[in-house]
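HAD family hydrolase
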Amino acid sequence: MGGVLAMTPETGWVPRWERHLTLPPGTVHARLGDVWRAGSVGAIGEDEVRARVATDLGLDASQVDAFMADLWHEYLGTPNDELIGCVRGLRRRCTLGILSNSFVGARERETASYHFDELDELVEHIVHSHEIGINKPDPRAFHLTCDHLGVRPEDCLFIDDAEVNVEAARGVGMQGHLFEGNAETVRRIERHLEGRL
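Predicted structure tokens:
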């Protein structure tokens, strides 16, 4: 999702909180790094995330609300409407899925934020890392996604904004494309569908 179907530039929310709390740069991630990792594979729930944020940063309930709102604002970004429109048009031509490194609570917020009745209307299946307990670039994440979709890796084109994930997809037999813009990505999709790999 993030970086491809949603544009998620850094908003600077973490440095702002560090300045607000008079903490040295890097403190938030140092204190909450294990929370971010656990949340990305569903090892903790949202209530525990909030409790840890409160405890580790010394925030009251209203501050935790504001902190989490800033986190989700950057995480969700804004929909890449042009590419989403392209994907909608592909439903009748191929099998579509999303494999996303995510965070606990992401599915519900994505559905609400991107104004789809259900994100599942866009693709056949969405695989969130926090729901399967595995992050990209772990090869198991790609194989599990293929299993969910009922497709073979060698028939798939995988698109991501991180080179490490694209290389991992290629490592399991998929075609891989590094997302750097809509126009080239749409052309790459068309080449794949036409069999011009």
